[in-house]
Design brief:
Length: 629
């Protein structure tokens, strides 16, 4: 029931002071916190049956969908991802469009093709028995059927009664699905001989946000979902062992290490057993199953558990279990607390893909394991729309991974050098596109992957260069605290960085995410007047930046010169100001900068632009000069 509207004059006059304060606060928006956001909410109760002979899944869903938006909804959209796995689909057409395009050369001179290697088999080559599909057979409200239309990978449901703001719609669906031969992220009988790797498999309500329904076709890449609670019961052959999203609710009936360490799978008289998993405040559900799985359980702080579920390479998976316990405190200290009661590393097909509380990964690679776990922060707990801002997930995750691995391995060299090199390769190629391009609309897989992973990582690395590493660390924690479970956008992240650093940074977001303009500074000339030497630095690229210049002088400690840009209305702090010369901010339109060094020309040994290597200069060959007399 909607609340009654009181419209008397006395109501307004009694609250006039409050209204005036509110109006004033709107005028002083910079002093206010950002306006609160609304989030849709969902609850799934699913019961599914798996036929391991026919590879068919039949299921029912009880769904409670709460409309927290200010909009009245007259239809609902659902994803049917598996309908992509069939010759002739949009995914098939898309995957074939650039598979023979040469996007690079190997060190041996071999062509690098744009074919997406995550496809373990081409969709075009699938036989009817190998295809994947998911078809809804019934949608009803209170037993009354609703009209629905299947648009390949998207289901459109027409509501007979509009769903008003703050109302909850309870509806049921029935569906049938065929598990595809291992294809992309999901399927059966992988190259590693894992029987079932089940992801993006059920009819899933698409996210509705300020941009409306995100009813994106599944053509290759990313996903986006509604946070909610999942209660999933999987009925399967009694010999199969499962791992996945959520917490197992019937461990005593299952055994296999879920109840007590090192227990076996409990014997039962029936041909099938049911595994029931519950996960709260998540936006997807994935699982894997195989009769020959092995299981390691590790306890970590806060009564949480880490599960490692695997079939081969026992020692490597055991090493991942031990190392995960070691790295978890670093991840929580650096990026924010892990919000869930468990996490599972599962050997399964489909490359390596992140899902709530678990990852499915082919092999026991520690670097991959850390990367996938870091997705728990930037996709599972922050939940950016990956179709629009894949770099905010993959790029931030890659940054978190490289820092975590450097910490574990006690490496002091720049951990981001590989990402920087990969970005420069993209930026100097003919395939570059703006990072703001929708994931489905990149012309090549190469451009998408390099933008999302490497340029996205460089975005954070270079932000640390601009505002200072301590400020970036504080930004990442503040970002988590403010935007966990709220689907932040690039503007939301940059506003956090601005508040932490006290600097203006939208110019950086605009240049680096919305254009393909590049950074290139070079040492142009060096001269002296008396006891003062001068260096002219030219801006050859189109993106202005604050500039750090290191100068080595004979018999003196190294000097640092910092030239801020007027764009930031501030500058990064320096821990050792005694050895740093800070210049007046330079206009962003300037194409040259002159620094003055209190030393004779023949006392100079070297001059280096950006000695940290954290600025994404696309041509560093002119960044350093060694002076010899």
């Amino acid at each position: 029931m909607r609340k009654p509207i009181r419209s008397t004059l006395s109501f307004l006059f009694n609250r006039l002071p409050l209204l005036l304060v509110f109006a004033f606060s709107l005028l002083c928006g910079e002093a206010m916190a950002q306006a609160p956001t609304w989030q849709q909410r969902i609850k799934y109760t699913m019961k599914v049956d798996v036929n391991e002979v026919t590879n068919l899944i039949t299921g029912t869903q009880q769904i409670a969908y709460t409309n927290n938006s200010p909009d009245t909804l007259r239809r609902i959209f659902m994803h049917l991802y598996w309908n992509a796995f069939k010759p002739g689909t949009t995914m098939d057409e898309h995957s074939r469009s650039t598979e023979n395009l040469v996007v690079g050369r190997t060190a041996k001179g071999e062509d690098v093709l744009d074919y997406d290697r995550r496809f373990q088999m081409r969709v075009a080559d699938m036989t009817p028995a190998e295809e994947g599909w998911c078809h809804v057979t019934d949608v009803s409200v209170g037993g009354k059927p609703l009209t629905f239309i299947e648009h390949e990978t998207v289901l459109e449901i027409k509501l007979e009664k509009a769903l008003l703001p703050k109302q909850t719609l309870a509806f049921t669906t029935s569906f049938n699905a065929q598990v595809p031969k291992m294809c992309r992220r999901s399927g059966r009988d992988s190259k590693q001989n894992i029987r079932y790797s089940i992801a993006q498999w059920y009819p899933k309500v698409t996210e509705y946000d300020a941009q409306g329904w995100n009813a994106d076709d599944y053509v290759a890449r990313e996903f986006y979902g509604v946070w909610g609670d999942y209660d999933v019961s999987i009925n399967i052959n009694k010999d199969y062992k499962l791992g996945g999203t959520g917490v197992l609710q019937n461990p005593a009936a299952i055994g296999w290490g879920y109840d007590k360490p090192d227990t076996e799978l409990k014997p039962i008289a029936t041909a099938k057993r049911t595994w029931r998993f519950v996960g709260n405040n998540i936006h997807d559900f994935a699982w894997a199953a195989d009769p020959e799985y092995k299981h390691i359980v590790k306890n970590v702080s806060g009564n949480r558990k880490l599960h490692v579920i695997f079939k081969t390479d026992d020692d490597k998976w055991k090493a991942i279990a031990d190392s995960a316990v070691l790295v978890m405190p670093f991840l929580e200290k650096t990026y924010g607390p892990y919000a869930y009661p468990q996490y599972s590393f599962i050997q399964a097909g489909g490359g390596a893909t992140e899902y709530p509380m678990c990852t499915l990964m082919n092999t026991a690679s520690y670097g991959t394991a850390v990367h996938e776990w870091c997705h728990s922060w930037y996709q599972m707990m922050l939940g950016t729309n990956e179709n629009l801002y894949g770099w905010m997930d993959e790029g931030f995750t890659s940054y978190a991974e490289d820092r975590a691995l450097a910490w574990v391995r006690k490496r002091t060299e720049n951990p981001f050098a590989d990402a920087m090199r990969s970005y420069v390769s993209l930026a100097t190629s003919k395939f570059d596109e703006p990072m703001s391009t929708h994931a489905n609309f990149f012309a090549t897989n190469y451009a998408y992957n390099q933008n999302s992973y490497n340029k996205g990582e460089v975005f954070l690395v270079q932000l640390g260069y601009i505002i200072g590493q301590p400020q970036l660390d504080a930004t990442l924690l503040a970002y988590y605290r403010q935007w966990a479970f709220k689907h932040p956008t690039p503007v939301d992240f940059v506003r956090v960085a601005e508040k932490v650093s006290g600097m203006q940074l939208m110019w950086y977001k605009n240049y680096f995410t919305e254009t393909i303009k590049t950074i290139d500074y070079g040492i142009d000339s060096i001269w002296a007047t008396g006891k003062t030497s001068y260096v002219r630095i030219k801006r050859l690229g189109d993106v202005p930046m604050p500039i750090d210049v290191a100068v080595e002088v004979k018999n003196n400690p190294a000097q640092m010169h910092h030239v801020p840009t007027t764009l930031t209305f501030g500058q990064k702090p320096w821990p050792d100001t005694a050895n740093v010369k800070i210049y007046p901010a330079q206009r962003w339109t300037n194409r040259s900068i002159i620094i003055a060094i209190d030393a004779k020309l023949n006392d100079l040994q070297s001059i280096t632009i950006d000695p940290s290597g954290l600025m994404a200069d696309v041509d560093r060959r002119n960044n350093r000069v060694e002076i010899k007399f």
